[in-house]
Design a protein that fits this description.
By secondary structure, this protein is mostly beta strands. 14% of the residues lie in helices and 36% in strands. The protein has 2 domains: 217 residues, no CATH class; 36 residues, no CATH class. Strands 1, 4, 5, 8, 12, 14, 15 and 16 form an 8-stranded antiparallel sheet that branches. Strands 6, 7, 9, 10, 11 and 13 form a 6-stranded antiparallel sheet that branches.
Length: 269
């Protein structure tokens, strides 16, 4: 977890950025090295590519100020919450069934409403604005990331309640242990100053979470992500009894990238 309050987002990838075709070609060349029957096994070729971090990347960037108000959706209690689909990202286009996502990085620039009723100022305690992510899976060949990006998905009290509308547009939400979202990161409580946050999830490596209340570990996310899926980043805010409102400002430069690795015989390399 990182609070990148330095005015700019960090580069996730610099230098060479191979395409899917580049990776397949490198894999083909490696497996043809040698003589007669003594060629490089596929497992070794994949290990070489993994050690060299020779993976294709996909990214999505959005620069748009958006404001999400929890008190747009009051319920008995009284309580209210809002979920806005701020950004979507396509997975890498690949037909190889052994392909799996190796990592994903989220970077956000946002601010809380600037005050709190029950304390926690300057910490993540009592934070009522945060980010969640879902996996959207196409239900037909007509469901593409491009068509979804051009679809106006309205705000809902929760991401779960957006499921019907998403299904009407040809997408369903992938479930994980009875939920359709993973927590990404919370905002600093009662801070109206825009801050930058970064979260990295890497397949096969447990996420170090300094403050479990502030950040999600992404458990199960990358294992469920498949080619053709869309990653959906939700902006969230909530309000409860005696807290008059809760607002999340998302200004610009929200960035997500994922790295595609290759697996063989169920073993991730």
């Amino acid at each position: 977890m990182a609070d990148l309050n330095n005015g700019s987002l960090q580069l996730v990838r610099t230098g060479l950025n191979p395409t899917v075709e580049d990776v397949f070609e490198a894999r083909r060349i490696l497996t043809q090295l040698g003589t007669n029957n003594h060629t490089v096994p596929m497992e070794i070729a994949l290990m070489i590519l993994s050690l060299a971090s020779y993976h294709p990347y996909q990214s999505s960037i959005k620069q748009l100020e958006a404001i999400y108000k929890a008190n747009d959706f009051w319920k008995p209690g009284p309580q209210a919450s809002v979920a806005g689909l701020y950004l979507t990202m396509a997975t890498l286009p690949i037909s190889d069934t052994i392909a799996r996502a190796k990592s994903i990085t989220f970077q956000m620039e946002a601010a809380d409403q600037g005050w709190a009723t029950f304390g926690g100022e300057g910490t993540y305690r009592n934070s009522h604005t945060w980010y969640e992510v879902s996996i959207l899976r196409p239900q037909s060949t007509a469901s593409t990331a491009a068509s979804l990006a051009n679809t106006d998905i309205e705000n809902f009290p929760t991401p779960q309640e957006a499921r019907v509308q998403l299904r009407n547009h040809g997408w369903d939400m992938v479930e994980n242990d009875g939920t359709v979202t993973w927590k990404v990161h919370k905002n600093i409580t009662a801070s109206s100053e825009y801050r930058h946050y970064r979260v990295d999830w890497v397949a096969g490596i447990p996420t170090e979470v300094d403050d479990p209340g502030a950040m999600g570990d992404g458990q199960g996310f990358l294992a469920l992500l498949r080619p053709g899926d869309v990653v959906a980043l939700w902006a969230r805010a909530e309000v409860c009894l005696a807290k008059h409102r809760s607002v999340l400002w998302v200004e610009q430069l929200t960035f997500i990238s994922n790295k595609l690795g290759l697996t063989r015989f169920g073993k991730r390399l």
